[in-house]
UniProtKB/TrEMBL annotation, chain A:
Its EC number is 2.7.7.-. Keywords: DNA replication, DNA-directed RNA polymerase, Magnesium, Manganese, Metal-binding, Nucleotidyltransferase, Primosome, Transcription, Transferase. This is DNA primase small subunit PriS. GO terms for molecular function: DNA-directed RNA polymerase activity; metal ion binding. The keyword Endoplasmic reticulum does not apply. The gene is priS. Its cofactor is Mg(2+); Mn(2+). RNA polymerase that catalyzes the synthesis of short RNA molecules used as primers for DNA polymerase during DNA replication. Catalytic subunit of DNA primase, an RNA polymerase that catalyzes the synthesis of short RNA molecules used as primers for DNA polymerase during DNA replication. The small subunit contains the primase catalytic core and has DNA synthesis activity on its own. Binding to the large subunit stabilizes and modulates the activity, increasing the rate of DNA synthesis while decreasing the length of the DNA fragments, and conferring RNA synthesis capability. The DNA polymerase activity may enable DNA primase to also catalyze primer extension after primer synthesis. May also play a role in DNA repair. It comes from Candidatus Methanolliviera hydrocarbonicum. The active site is at 104, 106, 310.
From TrEMBL, chain B:
It comes from the Archaea. It holds the Pfam family DNA_primase_lrg. [4Fe-4S] cluster binds at residues 225, 296, 305, 312. It comes from Candidatus Methanolliviera hydrocarbonicum. Heterodimer of a small subunit (PriS) and a large subunit (PriL). The gene is priL. Binds 1 [4Fe-4S] cluster. GO terms for cellular component: primosome complex. This is DNA primase large subunit PriL.
Length: 402, 342
């Protein structure tokens, strides 16, 4: 970002914040107990150098407004923790009094570009919220979902019961959600069965008393049902496509022949019914189930969830989270609070700047999807709406052309 | 009330027990009088039994019911961290053993006074997941990990045994947190005889740890996580199974012998020579596999990466962090030796 771009971005961010502090929606994004939070800012004028000014505290939004307008920030963060002395410069001196539980989901960079990544992240965020409601018993209004402005979503939980949880305890929750350290042996019991079921021998699967056990077994059964009713060709392809991630070394890919045997064995009503009750009496089916179990864990667990867990012992920048309603200085998008994830499209709903055309000098050819449009940008000078201008300058791939 | 005494005297934290003591009108001062020497004696026994790792035997409910508070007073006069932790551990184990024999109705009374809200659901108990995490996170067996439990709508479902283990842990923490109480010197003085006897036993016990001082191995360069684990043990805290595993494999990799490693664990409140030896031998290769020190990523997952600092950058295993420190030291020594300008 050159000086001219910085001046431009600085000016329009200033405009945003000078109005924002009057708006209900923005003020609603302020975390509860604002005065007990530590704040951190990355100023624009030092960009591209990322300098974090932290250990700052405010008594009120208006005090914060003064600060923000004086030092236009590219990023605004607040601590998930509550402190007695949030402004103290040493972690030990702050006096930790509790912390929100915040989950941070990032989309994984991959094919399909930014918008695909955001879609992926959204799926995971939906899954996360389901877990939080079904398993942990939170209700919708106890969770604040926020688009991060960057690659994903943040879910803030501020229910009183979790505030005092310590680092290791929070990590347990994270392990639960990501199925980290899940050993299927611990949640599904298998016992060998012999001859009693009119067939040779096999396993007897049993749920242990665990939520994950039920999830995994439920997944297995619905997968088998689904395969059973598929065209033969599709079914075989599905079987062969089962990912056997973690233990790849141990399992060879299924041959067409074996896949066919597996399929035949579920197609037999009697065998399928027994499987539903956990009695797996053919070797082929046993093999198949093992694979399904493994890929179920992949599919059911939440991906991209980073351990932004609060650990009062270590000091770590992760413990600061972007202020809902503030601008992400790496995208020019706003960290928008989301009511209904299904309906939310960050590339429309988090765009705040105008459509007024402005010039930019791009350093490459590219396409930008925003506001339901695709903007083709060529290397060199381009005229595009202001929101695209800000987006590209913030991403660091173009400069302001006045 | 009479009938109840036989039951409640084993559970000093119950409201009924506290009421009983209150109604009896025996004051702190009274207890230190000659006539009550048996109560004092029993209080002392509770502590000495914990120190020896013996189970405290009860026979006279009407005396025993007071001995709990006298034990607390003595512990508060002595104010020794290790002793309190050790006592908390054994006292809570004792309570667990008697709770196992109680029926569900009675258990319901118990949990309320320990601050764990629970509900019965058929044969199981359900408790809020935050309560579960508070007390279950320190448990060593992976079966206690949340992921291996049934979690539904905010509640964790537990068998009676598991639930009682949680109560045991809640009780242990409660003792740890409550003690030492503020006891006037006057009272401590009156119990001098008993207190001195405990102190003597305590010192004998401590002498037997033979503090190991990391002679050859350069402890200064231990990574923060390992320093933390060692200091936790020295403070008398229980460390998690994964923590023990990490520390043992680390110490063994830096060249410490099995006996030396066992010595380090000796100051742990729940030290059990045989078990520790078995574990240490297992990890250091008796089973045919020598376990390597877990990576930083694994350390993080289990909450054992504590105190990560500048020198931890670019290292992926605490061993790497240790060697990095050693090398740095070595090169400063060299530089200084080579007489570089200041
Ligand atoms: S980063 Fe690695 S070496 Fe450093 S404290 Fe954490 S686990 Fe230990």
């Amino acid at each position: 970002m050159n000086e001219r771009s910085k001046r431009f971005v600085g000016k329009i961010f200033w405009n945003y914040y000078s109005n924002a502090f009057r708006e209900e929606e923005f003020l609603a994004g302020m975390p509860p107990k604002l005065e007990a939070r530590e704040w951190g800012f990355i100023p624009i004028y030092l960009l591209p150098k990322i300098v974090m000014r932290r250990h700052i505290s405010f008594q009120s939004p208006s005090e914060m407004k003064k600060f923000v307008l004086k030092n236009i920030p590219a990023h605004i963060y607040h601590s998930s923790a509550y402190y007695k002395y949030p402004g103290a410069d040493k972690m030990e001196k702050k006096g930790w009094e509790g912390a929100d539980l915040i989950f941070d989901i990032d989309g994984e960079i991959g094919r399909g570009g930014y918008s695909q990544m955001l879609l992926k992240a959204k799926e995971e965020a939906v899954k996360l919220k389901d877990f939080l409601m079904d398993d942990f018993g939170f209700v919708e209004r106890e969770m604040l979902t926020v688009f991060s402005g960057g690659r994903g979503y943040h879910v803030h939980v501020r229910d009183g019961a979790i505030l005092k949880l310590r680092g290791a305890e929070r990590r347990e929750i994270l392990d639960y959600l990501t199925a980290n350290s899940l050993d299927v042996k611990n949640v599904l019991r298998t016992t060998a069965v012999r001859g009693d079921y009119g067939a040779k021998s096999g396993y007897f699967y049993e749920e242990t008393n665990s939520g994950w056990g039920r999830r995994v077994w439920g997944y297995v059964i619905s997968f088998l049902k689904y395969i059973k009713d598929l065209d033969e060709e599709d079914a075989i392809e599905k079987i062969r496509g089962l990912r056997v991630g973690r233990k790849e070394k141990l399992v060879k890919n299924v041959s067409k022949e074996d896949a066919f045997k597996m399929l035949t064995s579920i197609k037999n009503e009697k065998i399928f019914d027994m499987a539903r009750n956990g009695k797996i009496i053919s070797k082929e089916l046993g093999n198949l189930v093992e694979r399904v179990v493994e890929s179920s864990v992949e599919d059911l667990s939440i991906k991209g969830l980073s351990p932004s867990v609060d650990e009062p012992v270590t000091s770590d920048i992760k413990r600061l989270i972007r202020l809902p309603g503030s601008i992400h200085g790496g995208s020019g998008l706003i960290a928008r609070m989301v009511d209904d994830l299904d309906d939310f499209d960050p590339l429309v709903d988090a765009v705040i700047f105008s459509e007024e055309e402005k010039k930019i000098i791009s350093d490459r050819n590219m396409e930008v999807e925003m506001m339901d449009n695709t903007y083709k940008i060529k290397k060199g000078e381009n005229k595009v709406p202001e929101f695209v201008v800000v987006f590209l300058i913030c991403r660091g791939v173009a400069e302001y052309g006045c | 009330m009479r009938v109840e005494l036989k039951k409640i005297y084993k559970y000093p934290f119950l409201e009924e027990t506290k009421d009983y003591i209150r109604d009896s009108d025996i004051s702190l001062e009274d207890i230190t009088e000659i006539g009550f020497s048996e109560i004092l004696e029993r209080g002392k026994r509770r502590i000495l039994d914990a120190l020896d790792g013996k189970e405290h035997v009860y026979d006279k409910p009407e005396r025993e019911i007071f001995s709990y508070s006298t034990a607390n007073i003595m512990l508060s006069c002595i104010k020794d961290d290790y002793l309190i932790k050790r006592y908390a551990l054994f006292e809570s184990k004792r309570v667990y053993k008697s709770m196992v024999k109680e029926d569900d109705k009675f258990i319901e009374r118990v949990d309320q006074s320990l601050g764990v809200r629970s509900e019965r659901d058929n044969k199981e108990y359900k408790i809020h997941f935050t309560d579960y995490l508070r007390y279950g996170t320190g448990m060593r067996d992976p079966r206690w990990k949340l992921i291996n439990k049934r979690v539904c709508k905010g509640y964790v479902y537990l068998s009676k045994e598991n639930f009682l283990r949680i109560l045991q842990e809640a009780y242990r923490r409660k003792i740890n947190d409550d003690l030492p109480l503020n006891v006037p010197d006057e009272i401590c003085k009156r119990m001098r005889g008993n207190i001195n006897e405990i102190k003597k036993k305590l010192n004998e016990k401590k002498a037997s740890f033979m503090r190991y001082e990391f002679s050859e191995i350069n402890k200064d360069h231990f990574p923060p996580c390992m320093k933390f684990l060692v200091s936790e043990i020295k403070r008398g805290s229980n460390i998690s199974h994964s923590g023990r595993f990490a520390l043992t494999s680390f110490l063994s990799s830096v060249g410490m012998s099995r006996d030396e490693i066992i010595k380090i664990y000796r100051s742990s409140p729940d030290f059990d020579e045989e078990k520790t030896r078995y574990q240490v031998e297992h990890i250091t290769g008796s089973s045919g596999t020598v376990y390597r020190c877990p990576s930083c990523a694994t350390m993080k997952t289990y909450g054992n990466c504590i105190g990560e600092d500048e020198d931890c950058r670019w290292v992926s295993n605490p061993m790497g962090r240790y060697y990095k420190g050693l090398k740095k030291q070595l090169s400063t020594n060299l530089h200084q030796g080579a007489g570089y300008p200041r």
